[in-house]
């Protein structure tokens, strides 16, 4: 690829080997027209979208087990898109989103690499309204609470795009901002259940991964 280098990795989820094109390392950078900079993506952050992170693999494992029946699902910060690919293979109604200008071509390439149809994708800034995106029964994300203020911005997205009865599922590697996120979602009527999930297909119980699963029922939403 021009301006940066990639490699291919494979992760098994639910017994299926997902092949993924990722950036070769964290030193990759290419923003010749300044598009990423205008979106607020610094050179130090530029390569983060294109990696296979443990929290992303944990979210993919959770989505292999997630009840998708009748649900419209939005993934925030999809990056290379493993969790959305798992949902696509299961036949879920999923929309993947990210702010990075290369997330969409990487996602399309990875879908084709695994013999899947192209996913629905929207570039999404959390600090700007996008009414055309619509509403969702479930909003999912991995390791999105890495900076101060992320909890507030994430809650704004939930406020704009979650149905009154909805779920929010976040995999978090133990960053300190999850407590504030839980308090803010509580104000929106969401209750938290923390559960364990395998990190990979070979991870035996008791599982190492932790999943923050928030649910809002009609009574709480209408209170």
TrEMBL record:
Organism: Lysobacter hankyongensis
Name the record gives this protein: Methyltransferase domain-containing protein
InterPro entries reported in the protein's UniProt record: Methyltransf_16, SAM-dependent_MTases_sf
Ribosomal protein recorded as keyword: no
Example GO biological process: methylation
Pfam families recorded: Methyltransf_16
GO molecular function, one term: methyltransferase activity
Keywords noted in UniProt: Methyltransferase, Transferase
